[in-house]
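[audit] Reproducing an earlier prediction to check determinism. Same input, same settings, fresh worker. If the tokens differ from the archived copy the diff job will pick it up downstream; this log only records the rerun itself.
[audit] input (256 residues):
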Amino acid sequence: MKIATWNVNSLNVRLPQVQDWLQQHTPDILVLQELKLDQDKYPAAVFQMGGWQTVWSGQKTYNGVAIISKEQPQDVIVGLPALPDDPQRRVITATIGGIRVINVYCVNGEAPDSPKFQYKKQWFEALTEFVRDQMAQHEKLILLGDFNIAPTDLDCYDPEKWHEKIHCTSIERSWFQKLLDLGLTDSLRHRYPEEVMYTWWDYRGAMFQRKQGLRIDHLLVTPTLRDSLQDVQVDLEARAQERPSDHAPVWAEFAL
């Protein structure tokens, strides 16, 4: 089974790239973040005509998440129960092929001294509570998406420059660790403990060409999926296309 995540940074712009990627890689599940489309503007029919099933939670201009899969998603939950009034569309959960899939576009936070950083803290607390509850119900679970956290200095091209800056602060890394402490495994680090692999590169300054990025897109898995993990890769070719997202797709294969 092949499961992938991709922050597309506007599905309206990147739809042809997503269609090509689906055709080329034929994943069982692809989750998207940053759709930047209203609920009624999501191109469900385009995916369905290609033989895919899809569920989504859209939001104009910002946010938005979707799941695209070969099998019909079941038992769909939108949002986080602990934040019922949150207007930001950042989470969609479904069961596909016996796997509980939680697709997240985590809060950026802007800067440690920003009010948005306090929202990020509250949001991660709500996410952790939700994941704990879902893990109690589902042995096979994957939490994946854009976390907006680089978990260690290995996941950052210049640790000194980024020290205690957004995405790389000690407190953000502690929030990420709390998710792992639930019993989840960072699949890429499980497979490649010491590899330098980034998933996001700033558009400015030719950062992709200079290989200066951050690893902020992750696939966290329960022990059953960890034990069946075969490989994890970052698709650099997708990031090298014309008019790319600033994120690359990340995929994992499981012997299921």
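[audit] rerun output stored. Observation attached for the diff report: The chain has a mean pLDDT of 98.
[audit] end
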